[in-house]
């Protein structure tokens, strides 16, 4: 019997990875709000630089998780992690029987909210290393990368995590199981913490230009993230900063997710990426003046956006 | 015999203070480039919230200092301190006989360039605490404050500095002689270093909003400036940060000079205010991670402006 999967938050990430799972033979349903009408009628059109073009027609297209009339093996949360999205509320009504919860989301220290809301569920934490954009309603363009990393958050999650990874691999994803998914989150934060805010605060520079102009500053920010990771008991390899710099040097000029959100007037993952890192540092007595500065500046930038939007 | 004064860089600051000197009876000429035609015909119209409205007709209106056919007692440089303005070149041809050089300019560590170019001249360093804008060609609106601080940079400058201060006072300026003008520059930098870049990097917030949202961050930046001042042998009073915060709290919401430059597409005094502070800190082995972050971010912001302007 094929696995039943409910994707909650089927934007670019959720739509793309849902489409991969469907290719593996799973029965994939989606909760998608903004493109509901279009996706219900036409499904998703996927255009991947590695896997080609195809149409993904979900088993059910829903406005909210509570409308799901089945019992999913996996509910996969793919929303952004921002203040005005209630992650627990989004998924609660979509859970039944032994549904395991997985999330493919950015940020550090984002597990506790779900662990405490659903103490009896299997929880799997996931990270996507991908560049894919929603270019029109229901149309997703996969531009680069695509690796997934999953890790068990609850003691009983390892087997289910492995099985989910196998499904993704069968659908064409490069999928890896991490034995320390919390370290993997810090590892991803090493890149996100400098490049996401710098791309916004610079007024829209691509990663290449940032690196060429301010490599020392980028390295210093990365080191601060490494120090928090170590203090939190999840030390990263000694060459982490060098590898991130080298990798970025050989990436094509790239607009970060935060910059894309900024340019489209969408909320940014400032708290998930920077706020949580700064709060962890404070809890652990790690000095992170540069991360604090970036966080304060992003807060000011967001305040200005709100002021600009409010009627004068 | 009335004093002869040549103002070089007669924008808002130069025009306003030149007008005050003319009120004191001095014979004031100006070098002004962008508004040359208008000012030559009509002079300046000054509209001051404390001193009223009047017209200031300079003795000579010149395109460049070399056109001055007299021997000034004082040449007062009022240009901005930015990379594409050659301060030495701007004034060299306007000097004759015993002309003393004064400058009313922002920034720290901006003295050396003039001291080494003109080793035999009397040099007076000045700071303006004023909010005044050029609202149209030759029209200057004085909105708030206005205090000047002068100090001698060369051993023989004290008497001439005092006399210049007296002239300004006679013209209606609140003018003070500083016994340590280098400390006064650091003192002003305590305010400029946070509020100027934060107003730009936030996308245009006024000082009030910055302070209300990120007071701790502002204080930390101010403390870094105080530490550089101390290390450079010009310690500031212990209550400097508190006083600056209190003063800002009671200011009307205020757009910084850097924000005004940014909004009008003019070069910003990033190097004079932040770059020089960071370089002084490095020379003196003072840790200033927040100033470094602001400097790096302003450099990125300026890079983005240049990229945006360049043909694609």
UniProtKB/TrEMBL annotation, chains A, B:
Q: Which UniProt keywords apply?
A: NADP, Oxidoreductase, Pantothenate biosynthesis
EC code(s) of this entry: 1.1.1.169
GO BP field: pantothenate biosynthetic process
Q: Which GO terms describe its cellular component?
A: cytoplasm
Q: Name the SUPFAM superfamilies for this protein.
A: 6-phosphogluconate dehydrogenase C-terminal domain-like, NAD(P)-binding Rossmann-fold domains
Q: What's a Pfam family in this record?
A: ApbA_C
* InterPro entries given in the database record: 6-PGluconate_DH-like_C_sf, 6PGD_dom2, ApbA, KPA_reductase, KPR-Related, KPR_N, NAD(P)-bd_dom_sf
Q: What does the record give under GO molecular function?
A: 2-dehydropantoate 2-reductase activity
Q: Which pathway is it part of?
A: Cofactor biosynthesis; (R)-pantothenate biosynthesis; (R)-pantoate from 3-methyl-2-oxobutanoate: step 2/2
State the reactions this protein catalyses: (R)-pantoate + NADP(+) = 2-dehydropantoate + NADPH + H(+)
Top EC class for this record: oxidoreductase
Recorded family membership: Belongs to the ketopantoate reductase family.
Q: What does this protein do?
A: Catalyzes the NADPH-dependent reduction of ketopantoate into pantoic acid.
PANTHER family membership: 2-DEHYDROPANTOATE 2-REDUCTASE (PTHR21708:SF26), PROBABLE 2-DEHYDROPANTOATE 2-REDUCTASE (PTHR21708)
Q: What is this protein called?
A: 2-dehydropantoate 2-reductase
């Amino acid at each position: 019997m094929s696995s039943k999967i409910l994707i909650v938050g089927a934007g670019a990430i959720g739509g793309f990875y849902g489409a991969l799972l469907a290719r593996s033979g799973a029965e994939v349903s989606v909760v998608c709000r903004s493109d509901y009408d279009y996706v219900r009628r036409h499904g998703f059109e996927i255009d991947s630089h590695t896997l080609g073009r195809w149409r993904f027609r979900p088993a059910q297209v829903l406005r909210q998780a509570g409308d799901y009339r089945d019992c999913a093996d996996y509910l996969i949360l793919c929303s952004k992690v921002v203040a005005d999205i209630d992650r627990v509320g989004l998924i609660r009504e979509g859970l039944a029987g032994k549904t395991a919860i997985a999330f493919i989301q950015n940020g550090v220290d984002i597990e506790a909210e779900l662990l405490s809301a659903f103490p009896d569920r299997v929880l799997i934490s996931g990270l996507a290393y991908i560049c894919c954009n929603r270019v029109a309603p229901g149309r997703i363009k996969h531009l680069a990368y695509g690796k997934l990393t999953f890790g068990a958050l609850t003691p009983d999650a390892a087997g289910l995590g492995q099985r989910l990874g196998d499904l993704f691999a069968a659908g064409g994803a490069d999928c890896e199981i991490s034995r320390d998914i919390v370290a993997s989150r810090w590892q991803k934060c090493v890149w996100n913490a400098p490049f996401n805010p710098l791309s916004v605060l610079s007024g829209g520079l691509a990663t290449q230009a940032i690196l060429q102009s301010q490599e020392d500053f980028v390295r210093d920010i990365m080191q601060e993230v490494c120090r928090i990771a170590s203090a939190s008991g999840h030390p990263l390899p000694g060459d982490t900063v060098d590898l991130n710099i080298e990798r970025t040097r050989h990436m094509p000029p790239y607009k970060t997710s935060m910059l894309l959100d900024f340019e489209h007037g969408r909320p940014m993952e400032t708290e998930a990426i920077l706020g949580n890192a700064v709060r962890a540092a404070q809890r652990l007595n790690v000095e992170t003046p540069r991360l604090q500065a970036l966080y304060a500046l992003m807060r000011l930038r967001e305040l200005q956006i709100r002021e600009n939007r409010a009627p004068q």
